[in-house]
DNA sequence: AGAATTGCTGCATACCTATGCAATAAATTT
DNA sequence: AAATTTATTGCATAGGTATGCAGCAATTCT
C-alpha cells in the first residue's frame, strides 16, 4: 500500500538515491550493470516516479491547462480529443477546466496557476487583459483557440472567419439570390463578429441589405430565428448561419412549415461538424481547418513553453467551402451568364 | 517573474513560514490581526500556493483522473462537462486522458499514477483486471462509468441497459411488429452486450427471431447496417439500435431509399442525445439518466477517496423510454385488442 | 505570588526527486 | 612510478508547503 520511492530502491540495492534517479533517467554516467539492476528492481517493485516531487524539483510540471467552454457543442469535443492525444504523445498531461460563462474563465485561472501549468490553451473563450497580464507575469504562455483578444495581448490561432464570411457571401451572390439574412451566434465573440461583418460587408458592397436575427450558436436559437424570418411574407432566400448547429435548427424550422431547403431557400453553415454531412441535412458549409488549427496552436504553445516566451502572435487559417445540398443550384440563366 | 512563495511573505512580514501557512489556511490559532496582515500581503504580492509542494506535503493531489474514450460521440462531452464542473465546485481538479482504443487504457494508467491522482474515473472504457489490481495496490479508487468489469473487480455505475433493452422490446411488441432486428454497437462492450441480450431474450420469449447486424456505435455503421437490412425483401419493420447515432444513421439510410420511418419501419435508439430530438429525426429512444449517473459515480468515487477504500460496488440506474415519432403508432386493431 | 491555563508563534522536519559538486577507484599516459 | 584522465558513485541541497511539538508571553486560577 505504501508507495515505493526511489529511496526504497536505493536502500534495497545498497546504493544512493541519486544513483537510482540517474539510472532511471538513463544517465550515461551510470555503469550499465548498475543501470540494469536498478531498472529491473524498479519494475519488480512497481516503482512509479512521483510527478509532484519531480515538478517541484525541476520547476516543470509537464502540465498543459486547457480551458474550454461550449464543450457540448459538437465542434469542440473533437478539438479536445485531438489536443489531449497529441499532447500525450509529446509527453504532456492535460489539466482540464470547463466553463459555461465567460466571466468564469478568470475565476478558473488561479487554479491553473496553483498547479504550475507550463502552458495554457483557452478554447472558445476569451481572457480579460488583466488576467493575460497575470499569466505573463507568471511566465505562463497562453494561446487562444478560435477566439482572439481585442487588445492582442495574447497569442491566438483562429479560423479565418472573415475570409469564410466572404466566401459564403460570394458563393451565395453567385447563385442569384435576392434577399439575404444572417443568423447570429453569441454576441461578443470574435468568431461571430468576424463571420457576420465580412459577410454583411461583402453583400452591401454588392448592393444588398442583410437582415439579421439574433442567436447564440445553438439549435434552439437557429430554429427560433428561422421561424421569425419565415413569419414575414418577403422572407429571405439566402441565409448564412453563425455555425452548423444554428443552421441545422434553421433547416428543421423551415421543413416544419414546408419550406424546401436547397430550392426555395438556401442555408449555409460554418464548421462542418459531422452532422452537417448527415443525410437529413446535407448542409453546405465552411469547413474549419481543425487539424491545422490544432497543430498550429500546439506548436505555438509548446514553442513558447520550451524556448523563450514569445510575444503576441496571431495566426488565421483559411477554411474551405464544402458544397452540399442546402443551397440552390445555379439555374441555367445564371450558368449561361457566367 | 520569480514566483512568490510563502517564505517570501514570511520574510516580508518578519514572521515564520509556518505562521504564514497557517494564516492562509485560516487556522484559528493565529491571531486575527496576523491573519489579516498575511492575507492582505498575499493578495498584494499575488501569492499563489504551489499545488505540487502542497501535494507532496499532504500526500493528497486533489486530482481526479478522467479517462474517456469515444469523446466525440455526442453523449460523452456532456458527461465530461458535467463531471469537470461538479468536481471543480467540490475543490477537485481533473487530469484528462483520452483514448481511442481499448488497449491503450492500460498504457495510460502509469501516467495517472505518476501524478498521484486521488481517484480515477473511467468512462466508456474498461480496465484489465491486472491494472485494476495495480490501482488497488496503490490505493487509488476507481469507478467505471457506463461500463463494468466482467470480474467485478472495480466499482461501476451504469445505465440499466438490460432494463432498457427490455423496455424497447416490450414497447415494440406492443405495437404489432412482425420482423425484429438489432443493429449492434462495438462488440466486447458491456453496454452493447446488455442492450442486445435483454432485447433479444425478451423477443425470443415472445416467439420472435431477431435479425442482427454488426455495428460500432457510429453513424456510418448504422447507415451501412440499415442498407444491408433493407437489401432483402422481408426486411424488418422494427429495429433497435445500440445507440442514437447508430439509429440516426439507420434513419438516413431508410430515407435515402424512400422507406418511411415511423410508418413503414420503426426505429428505436438509446441515449437520448440532443440530436434525437431534432426535427429531422424525432427519434424514439431510451433516455440515459445522465445526471443521476454522474452524481452517483461522483459520490461513489469521492466517498472512496475520502473515507476508507470501499470494495467493488455496482450501481445500475434505469433509463426511461421517451416516445417520439420514429415508431409506428398503435393501429386501431391493436388498440382495441389491448 | 506562585501555578496552571490559554493564546500565539517558531523550529524543525517530512514529503520525493533532481542535480551540482566532490570523492573514489580504475585506467591511461608520460 | 608518478601524474593525468576517465568512469562511476555518493553527498548535500533545493524546491514549497504542512504540521507535530516546543517555546514564550499573557492571562486566569488557587
Describe the protein.
Two copies of one chain form a homodimer. By secondary structure, chain A is of the alpha/beta class. Helix content of chain A is 45%, strand content 17%. Chain A has 13 helices and twelve strands. Chain A has helices at residues 6-13, 17-24, 32-45, 51-58, 75-89, 104-114, 129-138, 161-173, 190-205, 219-230, 244-256, 290-306, 332-337; strands spanning 63-69, 93-99, 119-123, 142-145, 155-159, 180-183, 210-213, 238-241, 266-271, 284-287, 314-317, 320-322. In chain A, the strands form two sheets. Chain A has a six-stranded parallel sheet, sandwiched between helices. In chain A, helix 7 links the parallel strand 3 and strand 4 (142-145). In chain A, helix 1 (6-13) packs across helix 3 (32-45) and helix 5 crosses helix 12 (290-306). The longest helix of chain A is centred in the last third of the chain and has 17 residues, at 290-306. Chain A is elongated and about 90 Å long. Chain A starts with 5 loop residues before the first helix and ends with a helix. The model of chain A is unreliable at 332-338 (pLDDT under 50). At the A-B interface, helix 4, helix 5, strand 2, helix 6 and helix 7 of A face helix 4, helix 5, strand 2, helix 6 and helix 7 of B. Chain A binds a DNA duplex (30 and 30 nucleotides) through residues 3, 5-7, 15-22, 25, 29-31, 34, 49-50, 52-59.
